[in-house]
From TrEMBL:
Keywords: Phosphoprotein, Two-component regulatory system. PROSITE patterns: HPT (PS50894). Transmembrane segments: none annotated. This is Hpt domain-containing protein. It comes from Aquimonas voraii. Residues 12-116 form the HPt domain. The modification Phosphohistidine is found at H59. It comes from the Bacteria. It holds the Pfam family Hpt. GO terms for molecular function: protein kinase activity.
Length: 341
């Protein structure tokens, strides 16, 4: 376990390292208590003893995080407590969805602590989209099911985005990613962390280049990696969260609800992601060619925006693209308008 090396170094660590290592040991103990409580609640959903033990474990974790000033992680645990409060009040059952939510959140928090131990506080913002989604979770209805689906992707984007096995697949085309990213390049040049962010994206794409990816997932991920990243580099670091040695066969697919969760603070980019997702979703089971045409068109739009909108796409190109993509092509004009804001 990744705690063990820190445990072995306690005697030689600095005061700060010692405090963090001791906290990790306490965290593991609280995590074990939480998992035992979840197992008991699965056997007996009405067990008040197990529910109280679960809240004690969460409170212990939150207190330790506050002590270390890891406020982003503490806020997430506090949001989990709020989500579970209706269960404690007898208003909601402890169902499988909530148990899975707690397990996935625990894995995310452990990974965040691991990264903090290795790299310092640079990844604190990774947790913000999850915390916001937890705070907005409604108690019942279809909206709750949609929100839980969003949370599953936010908590584990690599597995939650898996598509059907019979979908068309292709080798990642790094040039395609770079070209779609042209719309964001000028903005990145103005950002203090732009160069570092480009390095991180390049490393992630390089790691993905040997994977066979569902076509539509490539297109959705391309937009969010290369356009959305220019506006929300902190939140979109969530896409880099999977450990390098973790097996994965898919890239997170940007359907509208998840895109909204990632791009929540920038409505124009959220709209842009939703437009792309709605255009691609009906073609999930269709041929590859229309999606390839869509990607080519996006490259042209990205080049147009990168040039400052001074060069218009020709009427002939737009007519041809609309003919290939179908009658409902109002999304194209909206996409151009959104990108040009």
């Amino acid at each position: 376990m990744w705690i063990d090396p820190l445990r072995a170094r306690i005697d030689t660590a600095t005061a700060e390292e010692r405090l963090f290592a001791e906290f990790l040991i306490e965290w593991a103990q609280a995590r074990g208590e939480l998992l035992r409580a979840l197992a008991e609640l699965k056997r007996d959903p009405a067990s008040t003893g197990a529910l109280n033990a679960l809240f004690r474990a969460l409170h212990s974790q939150k207190s330790g995080l506050r002590m270390l000033r890891l406020d982003a992680a503490a806020d997430l645990v506090h949001a989990l407590e709020d989500v579970l409060q209706p269960v404690r009040d007898g208003q909601l059952p402890m169902d499988d969805a909530l148990r899975q939510l707690l397990r996935r959140s625990g894995r995310l928090l452990e990974q965040s602590l691991h990264l903090h131990g290795l790299d310092g506080p640079a990844y604190g913002l990774d947790l913000a989209p999850v915390t916001r989604s937890l705070q907005r979770l409604v108690p019942a209805g279809r909206e709750r099911e949609e929100q839980l689906a969003v949370l599953r992707v936010l908590l584990d984007p690599w597995s939650a985005g898996a598509g059907r096995g019979d979908e068309a697949s292709l080798q990642v085309d790094l040039d395609m990613f770079r070209r779609i990213g042209g719309a964001a390049e000028t903005r990145l040049q103005r950002e203090a962390e732009g160069a570092l962010w480009r390095e991180q994206i390049a490393a992630r794409l390089h790691a993905a280049s040997g994977m066979a990816l569902p076509q539509l997932q490539v297109q959705g991920a391309a937009l969010l990696w290369n356009v959305g990243r220019a506006q929300l580099p902190g939140d979109l670091r969530l896409l880099e969260r999977a450990p390098a040695d973790e097996p994965r066969s898919t890239v997170w697919r940007g359907h509208p609800e998840v895109a909204a969760a990632f791009l929540d603070a920038r409505p124009q980019w959220r709209d842009c992601a939703s437009l792309l997702a709605r255009q691609l979703e009906p073609r999930r089971a269709g041929p590859v060619e229309p999606v390839v045409e869509c990607a080519a068109l996006l490259r042209a739009v990205a080049a147009w925006v990168a040039a400052g909108g001074r060069q218009s796409l020709s009427d002939a190109a737009l007519r041809g693209a609309r003919a290939r993509l179908g009658a409902d092509s109002g999304w194209l004009d909206a996409l151009i308008a959104v990108l040009d804001r």
